[in-house]
Amino acid sequence: MTTITRTAPATQTVRAAVAGLLALGLAAGAMPAHAAKGDNEKCAGVVKAGKNDCATASSACAGTVSKDNQKDAWIYVPKGTCEKIAGGVVVADAKK
């Protein structure tokens, strides 16, 4: 005689939750780490519309650029990254 055991719905829910947490943990580990503040540089000419990090000559504040790849719109990227991006130009910080 063959017996079939059924898993209780609560046990199935717990198993699904544990599997989800494990998957989430693995996905979080695959995300790139952000560079420390001093390890970033300003990169202009590569920003998508509405994604700039600061004001430009034609926009008043961050997130207000209206077209992609605007020459004076910049974002922070890890040092050494901007020169690898087609159209990317490193923006020198103003000396005080």
What does this entry look like structurally?
The chain is 22% helix and 14% strand. It contains 1 helix and 3 strands; from the N terminus they run H-E-E-E. The protein has one helix at 9-29; strands at 40-44, 74-78, 89-91.
Number of helices: 1
Average the pLDDT over all residues and give the rounded result.
79
Shape: elongated
Tally of extended strands? 3
Helix content, binned percent? 10-25%
Which consecutive residue ranges, at least 5 long each, have pLDDT under 50? none
Descriptive labels:
1 helix; 96 residues; 14% strand; three-stranded antiparallel beta sheet; alpha+beta
Short description:
It is built from 1 helix and 3 strands; from the N terminus they run αβββ.
Record the SSE blueprint.
Layout: H1 9-29, E1 40-44, E2 74-78, E3 89-91
Antiparallel strand pairs: 1-2, 1-3
